[in-house]
User: Fold this.
Amino acid sequence: MAERTRALVVGGGIGGLTAAAALHRRGWEVTVLERAPSLEPVGAALSLAPNGLRALDVLDIGDEIRDLAAWQGDGGLRAPSGRWLSRSSAETMAARFGGPLVLLPRATLVDRLAALLPSGAVRTGAAAHLVDPGSGGSPARVAVGDEELEAELVVGADGVNSRVRQALFPDHPGAEYTGFTTWRLLIPLTGAEFASHETWGRGRLWGTHPLKGGRVYAYAATAAPPGQHAPDDELSELRRQFGTWHHPVPDVLAAARPEDVLRHDVYHLARPLPAYHLGRTALLGDAAHAMPPMLGQGANQAIEDAVVLAHNAAHRVPDLAAYTAARLPRTTGIARRSVQAARLNLADGRVVCALRDNAIAAASKAVPTLLLRGFDTVANWRPPYPSAEEHTEYRH
Assistant:
């Protein structure tokens, strides 16, 4: 690229930092505008599936993230009693999808992505709003306090309640409550030995996963009205709801402190956007297609968005129509499947849950890879890698 062009990324989460790193690699002069006072991520841990890891390969950090994989041996789906409904293994998944599932702290990935950017590229405490999305002949404009910045590309990566999205599509209804709330915790648990698992109850679910370094990531969800909080603390609420479930759930709850527990209501974009761009401004991640977390694809789809956006930004006027065409159908389909998965995971009726569990157990026994098959079109995605010539030209 003969002339350096400027990109402004609004939001310093996983998607925003991946986009910034990918655009920087392409020769763009990138500034990340993060409204929080630091890049310390909200949330405990995340899962990266083979599709997300292949996207990180574009930034040459996929292999080092794969080395953090902690899921070994058997894992799968359980009932609250401890009965296994479905079993799987890391080896089977890696063989089917060409790579592992990696569970790691969010902070680890945030730090690694931020390290790919030049000094001064990230501005924290910088609440930004879009003034003008730009057009083919004029730059986009973003205001940060009393300052106004111009750029050939603006990336809205500012989350489920995106102000950039609202500016681009003011008639869109925005995020809607999914009907359930979630808890997450990441704690040290020395000597813990158990298989990675998710457990489905009636209207409730729990997941427990060992990480490298002697830590455990756990999460829970239950149907609830929005805005509720425990009368005492959220750890006590988890103990009330899940304290009698199978090992190691009681051990995890016994080892946790109230300050370890994060609780958030879950919102999503029930109505898809008409496009992921307008003018010289593009949306990615939760700003474009916030979805329930049941398929574990929120971060993975944001990372995919970022590398595809950079792939279509090889020129001073990026081809954002091509970006929308590549990303909107895929992410809309995955978001729809995430909603369906949430309904199945959090089914509440006694008879419905018994039928669900027995059907899963029977199907998994008859066809052990049946549940993995449903993930094929998600995990088998591959990024639009640049040509060898482009790869050399834009590497820094």
Remarks:
- Residues 61 and 112 are 8 Å apart (CA to CA).
- Residues 320-345 form the longest helix (26 residues).
- The radius of gyration is 21 Å.
- The chain is about 35% helix and 25% strand.
